[in-house]
Fold:
Amino acid sequence: MTNPDELLTAKAAEAVKALYGGGAVSPSLQVQVTRKEFEGDYTLVTFPLLKMSGASPENTGKAIGDWLVANCPEISGYNVVKGFLNVSFSPAYWKGVFSEIASNPDFGIHAPTGKTIMVEFSSPNTNKPLHLGHIRNNLLGWSVSKLLEANGHRVLKVNLVNDRGIHICKSMLAWLKKGNGETPESSGKKGDHLVGDYYVAFNDMYKAEVEALTAEGMPKEEAEKNAPSLKEAQDMLLRWEKGDKEVVDLWKMMNGWVYEGFDKTYCDLGISFDRTYYESQTYLFGKALVQKGLDMGIFEKEADGSVWCDLTADGLDRKLLLRGDGTSVYMTQDLGTAEQRFEEYNLDEHIYVVGNEQNYHFQVLKLILGKLGFSWADNIYHLSYGMVELPQGKMKSREGTVVDADDLIQNMYETAKETSMELGKLDDMDGKEREDLFRMIGLGALKYFIIKVDPKKTMLFNPAESIDFNGNTGPFIQYTHARIRSILRKAAAMGLAPGSDSLSGEAELSAKEIRMVKMLNQFPTKIAEGGAAFSPAVIANYAYDLAKEFNQYYHDTPILREENQDVLLCRLALVDNVAAVLRRAMGILGISLPERM
RNA sequence: GGCCCCAUAGCUCAACUGAAUAGAGCAUUUGACUACGGAUCAAAAGGUUACAGGUUUGAAUCCUGUUGGGGUCACCA
Structure:
């Protein structure tokens, strides 16, 4: 069955042609969902048609409305308000739409496109634990991947771990000096936190040294360059690059601790990757491309041996691609990895989930890849998300205002537990089951809180106010689902279950039920919309609207106490499908819905 | 300073490609369990969409300027 909006667009085009003639059928037929406060299902905006009709908006609307009712059996009526033609479809038509939704177990999921898309996200440094910013990145990367899968694409989720560099050496050095052999086992600390503590310890040490040097009369800038611990860290990096066994062993051991910690956090968040890349293995990529660019004449070499790409003609700056000593920089490496990935996986698209502070970097990356002649340069997309800010502004590790990921997850669990225990609905549930439920609700609240915001926008998190469990929240949707499941359990106990014959009766859908069918019917469109914009927020807001619609319906429509068997079965089928769509929508966001809570 | 992004109710967020009276939630005030689950529902109040112009039948949305905020401009990643 054709979608109502498509049907109306097609029929309206016919109407315009029949009424106003000519081959000049206006391409600007605007069909939209009728606003709540007006009667009707879909609305045709008549303003763009006035020149053609030569009549007032009211008369144009009337003429088209009359034609539609006369020539289209699915359309049962219309009204015109100002220039808006509000069209109603018949209840029988909507029942047909619903029956199609109900018979499709994968309703909303799009057919395979054959496209392969790589999504890179998370990409942590191995010198400190994950924080709230990483949580937004991880949740976005994960849900965008799921959303693209729902759009029929094959998705590869990858992580690029920044496991080398001076910052890693800093924690290693501090551990050597002050660690006394401390390990996660000996201290009981989670590995990533342990290593993070030594990174902080390094900075304290370094700051003290700089202060001591400036006290002796050395200018601050010079002191910052000459502090002995920094020198030692730099020396350690050189030894690492030479493969010095002692340094490499230490590096492996400490990174191992960090990975164990990260794995725990990823597991808590319900996140995994198809492949993990390590910069220690990819940081030399891209050097061949530098030579290629030089040969093509798009890069230039300075007297000191450094290589640059001049982008001033494109309104940007000159960009360094190779240092004077022949070592590569971040950009070089990204150019190389992109080429390597497109070749190895024959990618159609590559999405980088990276904060908007790197907009410039990705602009340059894309531009240079284009200049190097790669046709796929246009198929890389920087999913640039906004920072998570605190009431006092940006999170700053130096000022201790970073919201730790593990703490936050634990916190959400505690709050979920408290709330649930207060309500006391779970007294007959066993311990393990309860723990899982608290985790599900806490995570649901956290994930929804983050994902419902448009990725591009800066968002605010206030640690002083705990994340809500009422209103437009994850638990609201989880609760709605639990409620529906409760009804269905009771129905099953009465020997009633929605099935393929639930809609075969005479029952006609009420206005409220049509509204819900209409909303259900939008699900595939929402998935397409969210996918096109790489915005899981579209799905989150849709799920909320649907849940809210159900709760209103639920409040004043008896289901189990309905005496007419046909109507009862029809209602059961309807709420069953609402639950199924909620599950599918929230599944895309990585949020599970409970049977009860 | 150059370039980029942002500004919507007290607060957190919506508003498809320009469309009807700019919508939700939280907080505030009020009402609803002898009811299929009150983590719910119903209602009140809350707005010159930062400001000033412009384009359009129609602007939160597009254009110009102003103000305020953020980002970025490393031989860091």
In short: The two ends of chain A are 38 Å apart (CA to CA). Chain A has 22 helices and 15 strands.
